[in-house]
Amino acid sequence: MSRLRTAARAAASVSLLTAAVLTAPQAVAAGQPAAAAANVCGTGYTLSKAIPLPLGTAPSERLATLFAYENGGKGCVILDNNVGKSRYMLVQVCKVGGTSCDKDSGNFTEYAGPVYVSSFACAPVTAKMGTSSSSLFINYKSDYVFPCG
Q: 0.85 exceeded by the pTM?
């Protein structure tokens, strides 16, 4: 996974990814920075959703952003660190029913992921962030990050 992470980071433009993170999710969905951030997932992935976390947080005060991308019937998720310092992070996506999960976890200053699912309809997504795996300030799980149908 470390070679994939290194390659993905090299392919992504750091300045454009930073611009995407600092922009409200609605602007990310509509603008150029989203296309650059999609490169983290690979060619052909387009932004489906950007969720500021914790839920209910104003975009300017978010601690992380969960980005979901689609490419045909495949999905990709990254959890972006908006804190600016290393934090424990976990992002996971599974096929419906919680099978065939792909996850990335550890201490990251930029993002966790990308993680992939081959069939994204109603794919459950988990995003966690904290000072450690036992001290979380984000513990998000949803079956509705990707469209169901």
A: no
Judge whether 107 and 89 are in contact, CB under 8 Å. Answer: yes
- State the Cα–Cα distance between residues 93 and 31, nearest whole angstrom: 25
**78 in Cβ contact with 41 (< 8 Å):** yes
Tokens of 115: 């993680």
CA–CA separation, 46 and 28 (whole Å): 11
How many angstroms separate the CA atoms of 125 and 67, rounded? Answer: 11
Three-state SS sequence of the chain: CHHHHHHHHHHCCHHHHHHHHCCCHHHHHHCHHHHHHHCCCCCCCEEEEEEEECCCCCHHHCCEEEEEEEECCEEEEEEEECCCCCEEEEEEEEECCCEEEEEEEEEECCEEEEEEECCCCCCCEEEEEEEECCEEEEEEEECCCCCCC
Q: What is the pLDDT of residues 6-53, one digit of tens each?
A: 434 433 333 333 334 433 333 343 333 444 444 799 989 999 999 999
Q: Which residue, among 40, 43, 95, has the nearest Cα to 65 in the 3D structure? A: 40
103, two tokens: 């996850």
